[in-house]
Amino acid sequence: MASSLTCTGIVWALLSFVCAAASCVGFFMPYWLLGSQMDKPVSFGTFRRCSYPVRDEVRQTTVMLEQCGRYASFQGIPSLEWRICTVVTGVGCGLLLLVALTALIGCCVSDLISRAIGRAAGGIQFVGALLIGSGCALYPLGWDSEEVRQTCSNSSDQFELGSCEIGWAYYCTGAGALAAMLVCTWLACFAGKKQKQYPY
Asked: Where, subcellularly, is it found (predicted)?
């Protein structure tokens, strides 16, 4: 099977896919911030939440509905910082996924990825990882929202967790972006084969 990648390029393609998958899974999962409310576990992502209070009209009380879902609208996301984080991280994950899929196709198609295209792909990966890193840095700014404060014993604030803790999805998203930025962008420089010179 013909390939447009060097041996280093094949490692780059596989690692790019792993990094993109880690960041995308972490971004989609609502386990960035973990806490509890009314003795029920509650978790938040940037645009999703698990367990939320609803009014029980029959018993005239508030009960916790233990389900996961996204907010009903973009404006329903608890804070402006989380809305920005959702957009920035989503675009970054999209860029990483685009490069990873292109790299995997390059394993099977000859003359798809040259040295120059490999370096350009590395640049796109760097930008994508930078966007995801920016989203992860913005996320703690939303910890002062009312929803988060209710879950964190009313003691959370920007960069102050209160009784809550950071979940595995936050680390997964950040680790995927960090590996893409530090390792994949470097490997991309050596990923493509030198193009043959054809005499005309």
From this structure: Membrane
